[in-house]
Design brief:
Layout: H1 2-15, E1 19-22, E2 31-34, E3 38-48, E4 55-56, E5 64-71, E6 79-82, E7 96-98, E8 103-106, E9 115-118, E10 128-137
Antiparallel strand pairs: 1-2, 3-10, 4-9, 5-8, 5-10, 6-7, 6-9
């Protein structure tokens, strides 16, 4: 029951006032409706294979209200989130930096405008990555 409440609270934070929850008596919420032009809540993962080379979250246009970018828990480096010239490396670091498991909520109009970079390149192990949850417009 507590896990469901946290999930619903997370959805409410992501959706703001656009989320309508219907309850019947003291039962668990039974209906969740996205309103105000929102089509769905989606998610994706992106991997940064080469440090210093920003990776676009989406090469196709995905209109969104906002997105939550979270660095994967097993990342070994720092992730930088920003525009096309974002950098996670050394003294030229720019954008919003995330350590392993850190998250940032961005108010953007399209996922294609967001890029990520990593401070380390993977050498045959696992590459640093991010997980993104977004609210898509119709």
């Amino acid at each position: 029951m507590k896990k469901l409440a946290f999930v619903l609270i997370g959805l409410m934070v992501l959706c703001g006032s656009a989320l309508a929850v219907t309850r019947e008596g003291s039962k668990v919420p039974t209906t969740i409706t996205l309103e105000g032009g929102y089509e769905s809540i989606g998610n994706l993962s992106k991997t940064v294979t080469t440090a210093g080379t920003p990776v676009q979250l989406s090469s196709t246009s995905i209109p969104v209200a906002k997105c939550i970018v979270c660095a994967s828990a097993d990342n070994t480096g720092v992730i930088a989130v920003g525009g096309a010239s974002v950098s996670a490396r050394g003294s030229g670091r720019s954008g919003i930096t995330l350590g392993a498991s850190d998250c940032v909520t961005l108010s953007v109009d399209n996922l294609s405008s967001v890029y990520v970079d990593s401070s380390v390149s993977a050498a045959g192990v696992s590459q640093d990555s991010v997980n993104v949850t977004y609210q898509e417009y119709i």
